């Protein structure tokens, strides 16, 4: 595969595209700042999506459209079907009111979302423009997609919408997600998220003492979950991530709740862990209801799914993964195979070869207001994605 990638890189049109990407690095950085400055929390990506659609049309991509979910699609090259898909998600974890103004210090650009996924979107558009400008030859079409709902409670809704169409079956799928030139995500973390709510009659903290307290059940359940043994192979994680409930300091709450996040690479282990969690939450009712005052109503339990992301994998030996490894080496990087939850989860579930790649540069503090991006080897990340897409086609 190294020879295949080297041969692609030596092609006149690909070499021209690489030179274009390197020569337009400043413009790509400016685009990264611009797209990051458009707020795009999950479920509110419309403004950023319109910007990306306008940019795709200006570049010269064909068949640019926004689908029913809000994904923005554009097409390069000739042929039937979606061909190779290169995707970058539009949404961020930050609320709409977050100040996303970029500032620079010490060679870094700092802004919420500048790396995840301002970098991925800028790289997607730069790659597409280089292909158009340099007339890069492809054996299959390249479909560029800016997806909605990749983050948090978005639950991969954009890419799930794409693959709900039985006719949407690409030959390969590459997600550009954040910065970097090392990580190659070829294993998908399965995730299940739940909100567990306990409800009871509530009342005054003195006069009604003895009614079952939902907050006690939350505490008992959270403690029980912390004690559930987790396998190390396949690795699994279980995190209580938010808690809430109650109305005042002197009122027994009528409702208390917590949310959890479960992760593992194995579908079987994920199902077993989810079942163990639900059983523990049900058991937490028993001691609280048993000690309630006579004549008071018992607590009830509601468990609400908040999201489900499928696990999956593209084998390390698959040509798509091998192409990513070879392209990384060719460009001077040291590849590192990894597992994560990205838009690539869904095509993996459907049996489509899929990976996620960083889009060049370095970054840190993802999902924090202090997020930063440093443009070390920035163009190389975009060139890597181009070489892998051409090899996949």
Output the CATH homologous superfamily of the largest domain. Zn peptidases
CATH architecture of the largest domain: 3-Layer(aba) Sandwich
Work out the oligomeric state of the chains in this entry.
single chain
> What is the total domain count?
2
- Low-confidence spans: none
Question: Which bin fits the share of residues in helices?
Answer: 25-40%
Distance between the termini: 14 Å
Summary, kept brief:
This protein has helices spanning 2-10, 12-23, 25-36, 46-59, 118-134, 157-164, 214-226, 267-283, 285-290, 319-330, 345-349, 378-392, and strands at 62-66, 72-76, 84-89, 103-105, 108-110, 142-147, 172-176, 183-188, 190-199, 203-204, 236-245, 251-252, 255-264, 300-309, 312-313, 336-340, 354-357, 362-364, 372-374.
Tell me what the structure shows.
This protein folds into two domains: 2-189 and 311-392, Zn peptidases (Aminopeptidase, 3-Layer(aba) Sandwich), CATH 3.40.630.10; 190-309, Alpha-Beta Plaits, CATH 3.30.70.360. It is elongated, with a radius of gyration of 24 Å. With 393 residues, the chain is an alpha+beta fold. It contains twelve helices and 19 strands. Strands 1, 2, 3, 6, 7, 8, 15, 16 and 17 form a nine-stranded mixed β-sheet that branches.
What key phrases describe this protein's structure?
25% strand; 12 helices; Alpha-Beta Plaits; 19 strands; alpha+beta; 4-stranded antiparallel beta sheet; 2 domains; elongated; 393 residues; 9-stranded mixed beta sheet; Aminopeptidase
Task: Give the SSE layout.
Blueprint: H1 2-10, H2 12-23, H3 25-36, H4 46-59, E1 62-66, E2 72-76, E3 84-89, E4 103-105, E5 108-110, H5 118-134, E6 142-147, H6 157-164, E7 172-176, E8 183-188, E9 190-199, E10 203-204, H7 214-226, E11 236-245, E12 251-252, E13 255-264, H8 267-283, H9 285-290, E14 300-309, E15 312-313, H10 319-330, E16 336-340, H11 345-349, E17 354-357, E18 362-364, E19 372-374, H12 378-392
Parallel strand pairs: 3-6, 3-7, 7-17, 8-16
Antiparallel strand pairs: 1-2, 2-6, 4-5, 5-19, 8-15, 8-17, 9-13, 9-14, 10-12, 11-13, 18-19
